[in-house]
Amino acid sequence: MKKLCPYLDHGILELDNNSAERAMKPIAIGRKNYLFVGSEGGGKAASIAYTLIETAKMNGVDPQAWLTWVLARIADHKITRLDELMPWRYAVRAE
After folding, report:
1. CA distance 60 to 76
2. Is the sign of the CA dihedral 64, 65, 69, 72 positive or negative?
3. Minimal CB count within 10 Å: which of 3, 52, 59, 87?
4. Distance between CA 22 and CA 39 in Å, rounded?
5. How far apart are the C-alpha atoms of 42 and 65, rounded to whole Å?
6. Three-state DSSP class for 15?
7. What contacts 10, CB < 8 A, 6 or more positions away?
8. What is the Cα–Cα distance from 32 to 71, expressed in whole angstroms?
9. One digit per residue, pLDDT tens: the chain, 95 residues?
10. CA 61: distance to chain centroid?
11. DSSP 95
12. In terms of DSSP H, where are the helices of the chain?
């Protein structure tokens, strides 16, 4: 019962993980295609790319537009302010 309390205390939390499972479905379907990513580093790079793209989608942001926006700014952006480049920040800016 104690594990259910955060869900009851914070209305933003979901009771299940269906949205996360749906986001992972395309990856599971293409699993055989990704079996040979070339190397461990390639697999890590692919997982980072998938994470960024799915995070943008979950925040209602077009991943290509967001990544284009980020790549145009990241070279001159201070590392201590990377949070300003996150998809949820882009979504607020775009509104």
Report:
1. 26
2. positive
3. 3
4. 27
5. 24
6. coil
7. none
8. 30
9. 677 777 677 777 777 778 778 877 877 777 766 666 778 888 888 888 888 998 999 899 999 999 999 999 999 999 999 999 999 998 776 65
10. 10
11. -
12. 5-9, 18-29, 40-58, 63-73, 87-94
Quote the CA–CA distance of 90 and 95 in Å, as a whole number: 9
pTM attached to this predicted model: 0.62
Cα separations in angstroms, 57 against 5, 86, 95 = 28, 12, 16
Give the HSE-up count for residue 3: Cα atoms under 13 Å, Cβ half-sphere: 2
Residue 48 identity (one-letter amino acid):
I
